[in-house]
Write a structure and sequence with these properties.
GO terms for molecular function: pectinesterase activity. Its EC number is 3.1.1.11. This protein has a four-stranded parallel β-sheet with strand order 1-2-5-8, with helices on one face. It has a three-stranded parallel β-sheet with strand order 3-6-9, with no helix packed on it. The protein has 221 residues and is of the alpha/beta class. The protein contains four helices and 16 strands. The N terminus is likely disordered.
C-alpha cells in the first residue's frame, strides 16, 4: 500500500497520475510511519520474468512457486504480453509479490474454473491470499457458460467485519468491461466491506444498482 504524504487527491486525469506520484509520494527512505516490514521489503526489490518464448519462467505459477515461503523482499514478476491460461494462486505465506505487465500490451490471465470442480470461492482465475500484493497493467478474465442458482455475479466480495479493519479493495483508473449485463461492483459478504472504484471506466455490463447486500438487510448501508 502506498499513501500520499499530503491531502492532495489522486488526479482524475490518468495522464497526471505520474506527476502526482512524484509530487506527493516521498522516496522510500523519507516515508515516515510506514509498516516496517513494507519498508524493508521495498528497500531491496528483485525482478523475475515470465515469457513462454524465453523468460526465466514459462508460466506464472512456476514464477510464483520460485518465491520462498515467508518471503521478506518485494518480488516483481514481469510478465510478457500474451494470454496465460492458468489458474493463478498466491498463498498466504508469499507476501510482497507484484504482477507487472506492459501498459501497451497487457498480459491476460484467464482460466475456465468451475464451482463444480473447485468450489465457488476457489474457481476464480486469480486468487490472492497473501499480504502486500500488487497488480500493475494486468487483465484478468474469467469464463462462465451457465449461471445457476440466483444468478448473482459480482466483482468483489470483501469480508470486512468491523469499521476498524484496515483492509479493502481500491481500483484507480481501471476499466470494467465484458459481455452480458447485471454484474455488481461488489457484494457485502460481511458487515463492513470496503471497496473503492476511483476514476474507473464502466460499461453497461455493470448493474446500475452498483452494490448487492448479500440478501442481508443490515448490510445495505
Amino acid at each position: 500500500m502506498v499513501l500520499a504524504d499530503d491531502a492532495t487527491p489522486i488526479p482524475e486525469a490518468k495522464v497526471q497520475v505520474e506527476q502526482w506520484f512524484e509530487a506527493n509520494v516521498a522516496p522510500l527512505p523519507a516515508r515516515k510511519g510506514l509498516d516496517p516490514a513494507l519498508v524493508a521489503a521495498e528497500a531491496e526489490p528483485r525482478t523475475i520474468t515470465v515469457d513462454p518464448k524465453g523468460g526465466e519462467f514459462k508460466t506464472l505459477m512456476d514464477a510464483i512457486k520460485s518465491v520462498p515461503a515467508e518471503n521478506t523482499k518485494r518480488v516483481i514478476i514481469k510478465i510478457a504480453p500474451g494470454e496465460y491460461r492458468e489458474k493463478v494462486t498466491i498463498d498466504r505465506n508469499k507476501p510482497f509479490i507484484t504482477l507487472m505487465g506492459d501498459p501497451k500490451a497487457m498480459p491476460v490471465i484467464t482460466f475456465d474454473g468451475t464451482a463444480a470442480k473447485y468450489g465457488t470461492v476457489d474457481s476464480a482465475s486469480l486468487i490472492i491470499l497473501s499480504d502486500y500484493f500488487m497488480a500493475v497493467n494486468i487483465i484478468v478474465k474469467g469464463t462462465q457458460l451457465h449461471v445457476v442458482g440466483d444468478g448473482i455475479r459480482v466483482i468483489t466480495a470483501h469480508a470486512g467485519k468491523s469499521k476498524e479493519e484496515k483492509s479493502g479493495y481500491s481500483f484507480v483508473h481501471c476499466k470494467v468491461t465484458g459481455v452480458g449485463e447485471g454484474i455488481y461492483l461488489g457484494r457485502a459478504w460481511m458487515s463492513h466491506p470496503k471497496v473503492v472504484y476511483a476514476y474507473t471506466e464502466m460499461t453497461s455490463v455493470v448493474n446500475p444498482a452498483g452494490w448487492q447486500e448479500n440478501k442481508i438487510a443490515e448490510h445495505d448501508k
